[in-house]
């Protein structure tokens, strides 16, 4: 490989800059959401933000950490539960949501200590067991009253409109924060370490990548993000029935969003979340068939397009709009030709 | 008619062309030594003939039939067996099980559990041992014995003496020397040039995936092979002949 | 005495767990795949038996004769259509695809049968409640004894099959070195398909026992997967008898948990599983080293074959 003199390595191509500017504009519009949109749309968008958080955190875990968990509902449920608990203990509502996310993240550090030593399918099912156990233990809390559940009563102090707007802003802020955080992590040293581990764990370890420590950070971040999402979901739904939060269906949603959008890409899960949001809007009422469709789509994408829609898109248009890697400007055609031959 | 014909065979590992346009014909009962430096494509050529590696181009005929597209497990019943590099026994199973698992999948013939053990008597006391616990020489004997259980007409041997003690190699070659008399055709990859020239009828040397020398073993000098080995006609080659 | 009875009932429950676990670990042993749809497939078998009994009046015992081949054929298809492709996709894909499959199966069952909880107990006459009283507090259900005997027989049969038969050797060889068996004339893909079929046949029997001694609904599959997995881990991966012991320990732990607290059944089971897991992860290597040092004289392994 000879480097032609007109090649340079770039992260922020001009198009990427334009894309980021339009993203910022979109964020600006969304930031004023409750003032611009109807009550119904505001509520739906809050839900979308929660979906994005779920998809992004699950993708961080599976797509970058190589850890498929079917027990992320553990953290989703714990986040909601802790929010109820904290609020009942007198913490004011919205700080309680954030605190619930942080506490669950800390708890995940302990859980990860054990679970991260498992591999592949063992980790996947092991996490499911953790979720079941968390569900059963939460049911024992007298505040929750078993499956009867409880509510985030403190929210009653707000008017419906204020609650809607505050929850929207909380969800929006949490989503943006999480996206920025994950983006920063993936661009930093940790992101490089993660990719090395995903490609070859043993080789990465032999190169001095601290495999377990790296996985620990990812696991904690994914758990905290899912917990924050759970707490925010609680803020939109108000009632806390344990089985609705600790349901494996949440993981099914996460897997669907990530797989369809694009496992192991930054943009994919966001696209997947928007798609899931749309599909749910259109077909959610058809109940069981809708779930069958989700499962079938996950199965189909896993088998035939494991890189998802965004993966297929970037294969055709290799320039990344949100740059996690680098571009060799002027060498793209050559790289594409080389990549094609390899397949 | 030759037993095996390889025409313009090319095999790749990703972008790397390991075997490039090789032509080869093998008569029944013949023993061919395949020599060449590491990475010359010997192992890939053997694996492609056995069906463990896909041919990118070219044709392989066995006993007149085109077998290029057959998977390995369907070449075994025709009479092709490969003893892979590194023995590759089923380490968790006993020696007897390693032999039995190969029984009855190839052709019918003189090789049975009893006759194989006659040919490799060192295995007899080890039948109940885990294959992974054997010494290297015993493992190699077991690997060849396992291949013989299918009664191959063509036996492909990849680096049988690699990492073994001289005594173990000697014992193996005594057993191998008896095979051609039974009509078995052999292709062997062997690093020890002297030994290769000693047992083979014919020698083929590969360099970077191409045949650079082919000749009768009796008429082949070390110098001639070494020259083909490194792709240079140098004083080094002539010097090594002394 | 009630305590003893709880233990005894736990053993019988464990026999069911061992059965569903052995098919899960068998498939894992052969292909290194953990099939997340395993529990759902067992529940599917239970529903097939239920349909035969409920609509066609066929006794579940006879129903098994019909359903086992159907499920085995389904296993064959599962391998060819889903697992084979998944295996090529790396480590994550089999988990994702089988999880998607589980969602499809569960919800299709829900679509077909609704949320009602079912059981096969009404279709086996007296056997569902017939029991022997050993003392005032200890009774042994006849069905339970049948299930325990069947579990031991099937596990033992599987063990013998793998150790002694030609097909068993073929499966073990393929499990150990799938890339090598082609060279001795074994079609690894066919062995995989056959193994999946066999695992599904075993899962069918497990599903039948679940349906006979307890209740099930379309979403029971996930929990059965967890129980199977827990039994395998508690018993220590690898040996089939270990799986039986693991299943029994799990069943006993659950029943003792229920004895302590009405909510304790599942909590005790999951908790016991996690305790064993933690013990194995942190003490395991040390324990194993101690044991090996005692059992095996120091002996260098000459040229040990590199496992695939």
Polypeptide structure, described:
- The complex is a heterotrimer of chains A (343), B (242) and C (308).
- Chain A contains 16 helices and four strands.
- By secondary structure, chain A is mainly α.
- In chain A, helix 3 crosses helix 13 (267-283), helix 12 (249-261) packs across helix 14 and helix 12 (249-261) packs parallel to helix 15 (308-316).
- Residues 330-343 of chain A have low confidence and may be disordered.
- With 242 residues, chain B is α/β, with parallel strands linked by helices.
- Chain B is globular.
- Residues 234-242 of chain B have low confidence and may be disordered.
- With 308 residues, chain C is mostly helical.
- A two-stranded antiparallel ribbon of chain C has the order 1-2.
- In chain C, a hairpin with a 5-residue loop joins strand 1 (131-133) and strand 2 (139-141).
- In chain C, 53% of the residues are buried.
- At the B-C interface, helix 2, helix 3 and helix 5 of B face helix 6 of C.
Stated plainly, the CATH topology of chain A is called ABC transporter involved in vitamin B12 uptake, BtuC
CATH class of chain B: Alpha Beta
Residues in helices of chain B, as a percent range: 25-40%
Structural class of chain B: alpha/beta
Total number of distinct structural domains of chain A: 1
The profile of the biggest β sheet of chain B is: 6 strands, mixed
Give, in spatial order, the strands making up the sheet with the most strands of chain B.
6-7-8-3-9-10
Key terms:
heterotrimer, B: 242 residues, alpha/beta, Rossmann fold, six-stranded mixed sheet, four-stranded antiparallel sheet, 30% helix, globular, C: 308 residues, mainly alpha, two-stranded antiparallel ribbon, 74% helix, 2% strand, disordered C terminus
Short description:
The complex is a heterotrimer of chains A (343), B (242) and C (308). Chain B is of the alpha/beta class.
Layout of helices and strands:
The complex is a heterotrimer of chains A (343), B (242) and C (308).
Chain A: E1 8-10, H1 14-31, H2 33-36, H3 39-64, H4 73-88, H5 93-115, H6 120-140, E2 150-151, H7 160-187, H8 189-199, H9 201-206, H10 211-237, E3 239-240, H11 242-245, H12 249-261, H13 267-283, H14 288-304, H15 308-316, E4 327-329, H16 332-342
Antiparallel strand pairs in A: 1-4, 2-3
Helix pairs in contact in A: 3-7, 3-10, 3-12, 3-13, 4-5, 4-6, 4-10, 5-10, 7-8, 7-10, 12-13, 12-14, 12-15, 13-15
Chain B: E1 4-13, E2 16-26, E3 31-36, H1 42-50, E4 57-62, E5 65-66, H2 72-75, E6 80-83, H3 95-100, H4 113-119, H5 136-148, E7 154-158, H6 166-177, E8 185-189, H7 193-199, E9 202-207, E10 210-216, H8 222-230, H9 235-240
Parallel strand pairs in B: 3-8, 3-9, 6-7, 7-8
Antiparallel strand pairs in B: 1-2, 1-4, 4-5, 9-10
Chain C: H1 2-31, H2 38-56, H3 60-88, H4 92-113, E1 131-133, E2 139-141, H5 142-164, H6 166-176, H7 188-213, H8 221-235, H9 240-260, H10 264-295
Antiparallel strand pairs in C: 1-2
Helix pairs in contact in C: 1-5, 1-7, 1-8, 1-9, 2-3, 2-4, 2-7, 2-8, 3-4, 3-7, 5-6, 5-7, 8-9, 8-10, 9-10
